[in-house]
Amino acid sequence: MNTKDRPRIKIQPTRFDIAVEVFAWTALALLWVYVTMQYPNLPEIVPTHFGIGGKADAWGSKDSVFFGPAIATVMVIGMSILQRYPYKFNYMEEITLENAERQYTIGVRMIRVLKTCIAILFIIIEYNTGASAMQDDKVDMKWFFLSIFLLIQLPVFYFLTKMLNKK
């Protein structure tokens, strides 16, 4: 079925969905607050990239710390717009009138959770950048990679499994 032929159903958010939505925007606001408060204390040159071992391998102006929050903001806004169109998502089964509401609800919830996780991940990135800049130390990448797994891969796996479960 073409996405144009899919049912267009408005998915009503539950209390959980509203809480996740509020948390996403709160995390994004906290990211901006954290970076803005940290900015005056940063050295003029800060790390902008870390190698696999956790050692900074690229440097830039301290103004570059605002790129992360800007990217996170674009992503959160973009995902907020995207979640309004669940009939355009890719699904692992054909969408019918019978399964549309369930599949759309799961899809929209996945986007909500992921945008929250992305905002949290950017907080972790900015914290590591600031800590490395202030202490001229390497970042513990095992925690960073674990954060990526827990905040991105795990929710995606959970929601895709939920979509495949017919119950």
Automatic annotation (TrEMBL):
Q: Which InterPro entries match?
A: DUF1648 (IPR012867)
Q: Which residues cross the membrane?
A: 16-35, 65-82, 113-131, 143-161
Q: Which UniProt keywords apply?
A: Membrane, Transmembrane, Transmembrane helix
Domain DUF1648, by residue range, is: 28-72
Keyword Zinc on entry: no
Which residue stretches, if any, does this entry annotate as coiled coil? Answer: none
Has UniProt tagged this entry with the keyword Membrane? yes
* Pfam family, any one: DUF1648
Name the UniProt record assigns to this protein: DUF1648 domain-containing protein
Organism equals: Flavobacterium suzhouense
Q: What is the lineage of its organism?
A: Bacteria, Pseudomonadati, Bacteroidota, Flavobacteriia, Flavobacteriales
